[in-house]
């Protein structure tokens, strides 16, 4: 028979999956001999069973609960429901991972009309007894029975008004009795039956409520955002109540073994004498600092310090503890590894190693890679932020804090900067590739439409620029250059706003920002991560500036340099357009000749910035229509500029129209149609490499052909590349190595990777497109239905943010295996957005990739995630 | 050492892959002791080696060729290049499969300035000798040396003009000598060296030319159209010349053992006395029927008849033979299985079984399934066709012959039919789903744009309607309702045209058509196919009429009934649109209520037509914007009709806009967003099944959920289906079985088929979408670059027509294996366009599918292909 219920004395910290975090730690503390109120845990498996049984608690589980309850009664010498010596309990949820959004706590469970009387006598405090009863009815009705909390508040207010008092504490015992009477009356009216007087019924209903809360909408959303599977379930902890509000020798508090904001090694916390936990939270009385407990009760203080030290040593991590003092006796109610800021996490991890408490490997596991993000971007001055009121909220698409004057077109933004404006925010309905330059010069980007993976979001994250996307609360009028906030206030060109890319908040004013602090502990921890990891980390960078930034962040090369972004620059796009509208090979070659020196010089700069580290250059990828305007007015203007007729240019635009541009004439298909493009790009890469190598560098450029689905496509283009490159190298008289490889971003490429590896010297997984094709939806369009998928629990996460290991991942594993079967030393990497996502980095490590490549601002995150992957899944180091 | 050259006496018919068809048959005939001029074959492997060696013939191959030549000289007692007793040879290509487009023949090779003199003496016919030399120089220069043929013709014309004669035959020996002199002069001028006098050089250059011709553009195109891999290569046959033009006791001819048009068992052919092969082809003299040979030379005739019978018995198939009579002696130059019309193929196959020559299994292999197509559609009266001149040519997108009056909008076509017009042809730039009804009422469809897999082509093939697509030679003006043909002639609404869907020809007149003949042999052969095959054949049918047609053609059920086509009908689309613009669940349900009875009644009719055979109904699939107009004028009109404002309707249209509709909000994603649609469709299916079963049928409907990529999507919708269906069945009081399954058309579905099979009772491979997603291109857009892919030999076939077994096929195999691992008895089918393609049908048979489903007009093709697959790859029959 499965054991569904464990006494605290039967468990330990290693049983976290079964007992939840809270339960496992209560058991561990009990085992350590610490003063823990006794109780038991109903396991996470009972929760899973509850759902499997159609949301009922099986009889055998009920039996085990009652059995554990009986044992607890025996140990503590009190009896559940016995007015003369009542056992009261708290009921709390506790999942494997700490998870807000679920039911938290029901206190004082076990009170009924008789017990309340006994309690009054025992404590000699009828007010306390009835106040507890009142609170219990309200909490139970709200949380367990789902009666609106407000209705109880209204009764309380009624009574207070009738008595003409302001605070609850001014009510008399009789007033409280009246409140209890009306609460029970309300309960009966709402539910059609009396408030349950049987404590066993109270208990079982509370357990059910905890189980139900696992599927709260808020809990579901939290799980999705934090990669927690829905089949984990939550445990339920039932624990003897102890009271911190039994007089001045009682109290309650919380404390951390180290400062959770700074990481400083010093007990940090606060407490209130004669109070219960809620009072500390409610903020009516000001809590005292934990230091002051030393003066009030040195004996308790010393005992607590000793326990805290013991716990930190035991768990080898900073602890977050809850305690209660009941009539001069200390009880530990909870301990857990404390949440902390990124800065604190770094300091604590480094300090613990220096204190000899943990190894470097353990230290790198103690910092959440995603948290580093906050250290890599400017933030708002917290004081100013506290006072500021958001005027709207959008999606936190790219972190950071930005403040600047608003402009409504990329051109206006660029001109403003040219005219000396240093802080600009670009406000658009949505952005397109033509806006790139405007996005580049802006401190932040605000869009009215689009999701976390919209063009604005993806590009902004790539640039490390703050972005709030899909802000539907404001109405943007691009033509007339203004927007209206949710309160109806109008903002015009040049007005100041501020964006918080970490929360999605938009502020209608200029807020001061503080620069990111790159403290020493950060550097130390990253150096340990670098020692440990075997997975290399490269960056996706299209410009020398991005490359330089990424190099500073520790990038070991460029995994993806998109050549088309260069073509959008205002000095280049005319030649690009000339190439597109060319009617003959000669015209096209002439236009390409103009682009050649620009590309070559870009590559020279990028090679130089990367100081000889490998640079993977992807050849032209997007459909050509992206380089031409789409609306008639712009077409007319461009036609005039290019000296051609409107009709002719319009015909080109029409001809380039595609029903599904994502699946159209792009990627290597362009080079198959126009090999002269690949020829020009090869020339630019190879000549640039020769030029910098002449100056003493040792660049080995990697040419990457995108969107390959068949080895013959790759072969055709590779032949052009090799012919062109070898001729240039021969004529140069110097030696140059280079590699030709491909992206694996089409399912067919993954399936036929053994064939493709015959020609490809490296694979780079383009998991953005691979995810789109594997799922059969485009990320531009999926936003419309993915919300529905999350709310209906069909998807638990966004496959564009976190790699779909079960589907896309299987294709990747297949490609790795097939690729190595043909070419055992094939170089393997990833350059999709997933390259900067910690769980995806771990996956890439596990399937044996050589490197991940991500945007510059995610490089430190990937370095840490790669180290964690190596600690958790050790792989042999290549030499 | 590899043997690259075989004497005819060293080979046999089984060595076709190595020796090519022609070479293998020459060897076989030699082995049979038939009178075959001696010679040898250079193998297909030598051709492959030639390309591998950078288009050179390796020394070892040259050595083997000269060795074989020496042996041949010995056998025939003549010597290559010896003026006193010269051996002349023909050089001919011969691939595994008969393949027009390659170099055919060089005759008389071995002549030079000396040999010509010897030949003149030996034959006592200097005119013959110099005429042969002249022809040889011209043929060799043209075919081997790529000198323009016209330049030689000009010289000949020059000489004739100078001599003031009209025919070549009027030229004297001296004239011919002059022609030879000037030919050689031209050769020297063009090539910079003398015409090769060394017969061995002539031979080696001719062999190379044959190898080169394997990559002729025409040969490449032919291979693509006929699924011939490019790595097969061609063999070269070198054979002693015999001369049919050595006087009246000489002659040459071709004959079939049975009539290739009708299949009648009677020698069929023609010959010319005192002539060479070219003369028969040139058509200057009228050949005589083979029967007349009996009168001219009964001995030779009888010998030939005996050989013909021997060959037919030997090959157990109708033979196509070439022969030459040299001075009263018969020589066989070639035999091969003869090409034949579909009708002849059927008759011959059935007759051969009846004659006891072959088994039924062999008989089904003798008919090319694709050929049946011509028997299933009306054709033009051959006499009328002979006289007609096409006004343009497009792509033969859907076979058949159509004649009718032209209309330029679907609406006009519908109205014309309503007004009593019985023959209508719809002419459009391109068609869209809104044109369905107009396409339905038309005899044929002509489009100006789009490829073999454009909307018009796919839908027309599905309907069995004749279609010529992508006819760029005409200029269509839809607005003003006319088109201009390639000669500038204008055709307006109501003018007659005719379309040949098998050739792509368009005629500017009314041509008479003849109905398809379903002769008895057809039925007999199909019944044998049905006895043999294990793969079931279903049809894709959306209407009762299609279902009835398919049933007549032998469909054993419906594999794909697309429910959305029903919604485009004019009486339904208003309710559909009402559903789409609904702002609330209630409004949507109200609109769905209107659609319910229409759907139900459609399903009742379809079930009835299929007489209890399984019917798979696919739930709503296309993106909703397809049901709404896109241009502003139409939107305004519809808004008025629907009683809503233009702005509101325009907002709905904008909201439904997608960047990549193929990868957007469609398929099961619609039902996830609007489960009430699935509910209504379930209701319609289940109620219809109950209604017909009440009348004594036994329908087991199969509900198919499209575009599933994750088991949870399927589960979510299946829950809706099952809940709805079970309630209806319970209330009906009768028993009804039904199945719920899914399409496998998203790569992720194939990869996770084990999970999906937990919920799916059947899989149907939607290989249209699966091909798109696996290759990463949409078939609407791929037309733009696929031509380039063919011409650059990156693709050898259209993956939308023939299943890509190497990529898409691997995903299918994976899905079959994974699906069966979870659910061993899962039902497996295919409903993409590939279900009617013979090579794809064979693949489906091999990987173990239970059925293929194709358009009604392809059902007989699939039945035959399935039987052939079973003969070639026997599979156990399920009971």
Provide structural commentary.
The structure is a homodimer of 879-residue chains. With 879 residues, the first copy, chain A, is an alpha/beta fold. Helix content of chain A is 47%, strand content 16%. Chain A is built from 36 helices and 31 strands. Chain A has an eight-stranded mixed β-sheet. In chain A, strands 24-25-26-27-28-29-30-31 form an eight-stranded parallel β-barrel, surrounded by five helices. A five-stranded antiparallel β-sheet of chain A has the order 1-2-5-3-4. In chain A, helix 5 packs parallel to helix 7, helix 24 (585-609) runs parallel beside helix 28 and helix 28 crosses helix 29 (711-732). Chain A is elongated and about 100 Å long. Chains A and B meet through helix 27, helix 29, helix 30, helix 32 and helix 33 of A and helix 27, helix 29, helix 30, helix 32 and helix 33 of B.
Instruction: Report low-confidence residues of chain A grouped into runs of 5 or more.
Output: none
Rg of chain A, please?
Answer: 32 Å
- Strand portion of chain A: 15-25%
Largest sheet of chain A: 8 strands, mixed
Assign the structural class of chain A, choosing from mainly alpha, mainly beta, alpha/beta, alpha+beta, or little secondary structure: alpha/beta
Biggest interface, chains and residues, is: A-B, 48 and 48 residues
- Side by side, the strands of the main sheet of chain A go 12-22-21-14-15-16-17-13
Helix residue percentage of chain A: 40-55%
């Amino acid at each position: 028979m499965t054991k569904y219920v464990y006494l605290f004395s039967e468990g330990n910290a290693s049983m976290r999956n079964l007992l939840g975090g809270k339960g496992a730690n209560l058991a561990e503390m009990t085992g350590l001999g610490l003063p823990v109120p006794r109780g038991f845990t109903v396991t996470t498996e009972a929760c899973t069973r509850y759902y499997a049984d159609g949301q009922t608690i099986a009889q055998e589980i009920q039996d085990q609960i009652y059995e554990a309850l009986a044992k607890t009664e025996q140990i503590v010498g009190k009896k559940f429901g016995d007015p003369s010596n009542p056992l009261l309990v708290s009921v709390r949820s506790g999942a494997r991972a700490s998870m807000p959004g679920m039911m938290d706590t029901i206190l004082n469970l076990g009170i009924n009309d008789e017990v309340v009387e006994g309690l009054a006598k025992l404590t000699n405090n009828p007010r306390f007894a009835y106040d507890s009863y009142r609170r219990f009815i309200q909490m139970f009705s709200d949380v367990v029975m789902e009666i609106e909390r407000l209705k109880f508040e209204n009764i309380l207010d009624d009574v207070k008004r009738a008595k003409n008092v302001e605070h609850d504490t001014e009510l008399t015992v009789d007033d409280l009795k009246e409140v209890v009477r009306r609460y029970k009356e309300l309960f009966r009216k709402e539910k059609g039956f009396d408030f349950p007087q049987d404590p066993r019924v109270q208990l079982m209903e509370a357990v059910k409520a905890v189980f139900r809360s696992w599927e709260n909408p808020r809990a579901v959303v939290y799980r999705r955002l934090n990669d927690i599977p829905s089949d984990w379930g939550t445990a339920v902890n039932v624990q003897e109540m102890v009271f911190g509000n039994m007089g001045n020798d009682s109290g309650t508090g919380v404390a951390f073994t180290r400062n959770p904001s700074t990481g400083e090694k010093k007990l940090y916390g606060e407490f209130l004498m004669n109070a219960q936990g809620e009072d500390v939270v409610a903020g009516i009385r000001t809590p005292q600092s934990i230091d002051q407990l030393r003066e009030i009760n040195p004996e308790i203080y010393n005992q607590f310090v000793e326990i805290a030290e013991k716990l930190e040593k035991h768990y080898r991590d900073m602890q977050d503890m809850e305690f209660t003092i009941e009539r001069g006796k200390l009880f530990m109610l909870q301990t857990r590894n404390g949440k902390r800021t990124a800065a604190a996490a770094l300091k604590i991890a480094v300090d613990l190693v220096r204190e000899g408490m943990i190894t470097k490997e353990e230290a790198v596991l103690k910092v959440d890679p995603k948290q580093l993000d906050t250290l890599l971007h400017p933030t708002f001055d917290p004081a100013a932020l506290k006072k500021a009121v958001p005027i709207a909220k959008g999606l936190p698409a790219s972190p950071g804090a930005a403040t600047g004057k608003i402009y409504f077109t990329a051109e206006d933004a660029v001109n403003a900067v040219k005219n000396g404006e240093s802080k600009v925010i670009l406000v658009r309905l949505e952005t397109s590739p033509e806006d790139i330059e405007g996005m580049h010069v802006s401190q932040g980007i605000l869009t009215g439409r689009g999701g976390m993976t919209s063009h604005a979001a993806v590009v902004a994250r790539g640039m490390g620029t703050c972005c709030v996307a899909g802000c539907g609360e404001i109405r943007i009028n691009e033509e007339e250059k203004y927007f209206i906030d949710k309160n109806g206030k109008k903002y015009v060109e040049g007005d100041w706003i501020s964006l918080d890319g970490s929360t999605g908040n938009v502020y209608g004013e200029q807020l001061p920002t503080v620069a990111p602090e790159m403290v020493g502990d950060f550097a130390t921890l990253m150096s340990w991560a670098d020692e440990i990891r075997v997975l290399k980390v490269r960056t996706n960078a299209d410009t020398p500036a991005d490359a330089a930034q990424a190099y500073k962040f520790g990038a070991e090369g460029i995994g993806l340099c998109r050549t088309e972004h260069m073509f959008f620059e205002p000095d280049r796009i005319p030649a690009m357009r000339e190439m597109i509208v060319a009617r003959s090979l000669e015209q096209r070659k002439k236009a390409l000749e103009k682009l050649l020196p620009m590309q070559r010089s870009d590559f020279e700069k990028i090679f130089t910035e990367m100081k000889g580290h490998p640079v993977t250059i992807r050849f032209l990828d997007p459909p050509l229509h992206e380089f031409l305007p789409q609306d008639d007015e712009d077409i007319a203007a461009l036609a005039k500029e290019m000296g051609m007729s409107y009709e002719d240019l319009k015909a080109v635009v029409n001809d380039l129209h595609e029903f599904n541009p994502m699946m159209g004439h792009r990627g290597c298909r362009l080079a198959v149609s126009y090999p002269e493009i690949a020829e020009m790009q090869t020339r630019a890469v190879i000549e640039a490499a020769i030029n910098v190598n002449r100056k003493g560098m040792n660049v080995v450029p990697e040419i990457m052909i995108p969107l390959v689905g068949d080895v013959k496509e790759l072969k055709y283009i590779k032949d052009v590349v090799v012919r062109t490159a070898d001729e240039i190298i021969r004529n140069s008289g110097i030696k140059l190595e280079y590699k030709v490889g491909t992206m694996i971003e089409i399912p067919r490429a993954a399936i036929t990777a053994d064939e493709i590896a015959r020609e490809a010297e490296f694979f780079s997984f383009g998991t953005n497109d691979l995810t789109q094709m594997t799922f059969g939806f485009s990320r531009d369009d999926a936003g419309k239905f993915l919300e529905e998928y999350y709310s209906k629990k069909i998807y638990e996460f966004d496959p564009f943010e976190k790699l779909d290991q079960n589907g896309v991942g299987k294709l990747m594993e297949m490609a790795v295996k097939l690729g190595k079967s043909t070419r055992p030393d094939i170089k393997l990497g990833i350059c999709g957005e997933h390259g900067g996502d910690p769980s995806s980095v771990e996956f890439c490590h596990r399937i044996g990739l050589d490197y991940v490549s991500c945007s510059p601002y995610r490089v430190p995150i990937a370095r840490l995630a790669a180290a964690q992957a190596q600690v958790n899944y050790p792989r042999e180091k290549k030499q």
